[in-house]
Amino acid sequence: MITGATDGIGAAVARALVSRGDHVVALGTNPRKGEALVGEADRAPGSLEFVQADLSLVSTNRRVVDRILDANPAIDGLVLCARYFRTYRRETAEGFEDNFALFYLSRLLFSYGLRPALEKTERPVIVNVAGPGHDTPIAWDDLQSTRRYDGVNAMFMTGRLDDLLGVTFAERHGDGPVRYVLFHPGTTSTGFVGEFDPPTAMYIEQQKAMAKPATEVVPPIVRLLDDPPAEPLTAFNMHTRMSVRSGLFSPKDAARLAELTDELLARVDG
């Protein structure tokens, strides 16, 4: 199961898994790219199902999770890649800042929502491609960047929230079979999907020229899917293991975030 599967790392992982005979459920917003992936899979040993969905909406996440559970009672691995950069702040129809909704809330809803299906397989794992270990401070009184929005800072801060999501998930379900892995791909030439102002667009083009191809990120992610770590929570920068014992992975902060998140999600119907 891969979110953000029609571009960059998500698409590269999907192609690799299908090419070796796996069945992949690929989620994305672009139907043209989704259909192209399905067409490629038709010529491969494996198979691929494309699910079009706007995962920035909590209600859509809940609906898609239910649909996936109905069709796939057992899931070996979940790879979370969906992200969309915005230079300017935008709120979803449900009132959440777009980056916070897609890069954090969606990953939380899929992590917990698909847990029943993951627990039915032998060595299930969640790989959250979120860039763990960044030291951007968390603005606890402004998690959705309402005061002084900066797209890069909002993205990095939301990545910090994903780190804490992993901490809480492992604390709650570490005695079960699901392993939670936070994964940093480093600078990678992904799809770079988003809405950019001219200076940011120029910077992105420079990054594309210097970054490694998404295919180089596939081997460490596939290795984690095939052979998950023994510990409930781990973090990796490509092949290198990172410590999850620092203050960046504070259980106290994770509990604080979980409580705030529960309050926000309780306001959304569906």
How would you characterize the overall build of this protein?
With 270 residues, this protein is of the alpha/beta class. The chain has one domain (2-269): Rossmann fold. The protein has nine helices and twelve strands. It has helices spanning 8-19, 31-41, 58-71, 98-113, 115-118, 151-173, 198-210, 218-226, 251-265, and strands at 2-3, 23-28, 47-52, 77-80, 85-86, 125-129, 179-184, 188-189, 194-195, 212-213, 233-237, 240-242. The strands form three sheets. It has an eight-stranded mixed sheet with strand order 3-2-1-4-6-7-11-12, sandwiched between helices. Strands 5-9 form a two-stranded parallel sheet. α1 (8-19) links the parallel β1 and β2 (23-28). Keywords: Oxidoreductase. It comes from Saccharothrix texasensis. InterPro entries: NAD(P)-bd_dom_sf, SDR_fam, Sec_Metab_Biosynth_Oxidored.
Quick summary:
This protein has nine helices and twelve strands. The protein is α/β, with parallel strands linked by helices and 270 residues long.
Average pLDDT: 93
Give the C-level CATH assignment. Answer: Alpha Beta
Number of strands: 12
Strand order of the largest sheet: 3-2-1-4-6-7-11-12
Second rung of CATH, namely the architecture: 3-Layer(aba) Sandwich
Would you tell me which CATH topology applies?
Rossmann fold
Helix content: 40-55%
- Which oligomeric form is depicted? single chain
Per CATH, the superfamily is NAD(P)-binding Rossmann-like Domain
**Residue windows where pLDDT falls under 50 for at least 5 positions:** none
Indicate the structural class.
alpha/beta
Q: What's the Cα radius of gyration?
A: 17 Å
Largest sheet: 8 strands, mixed
Strand residue content: 15-25%
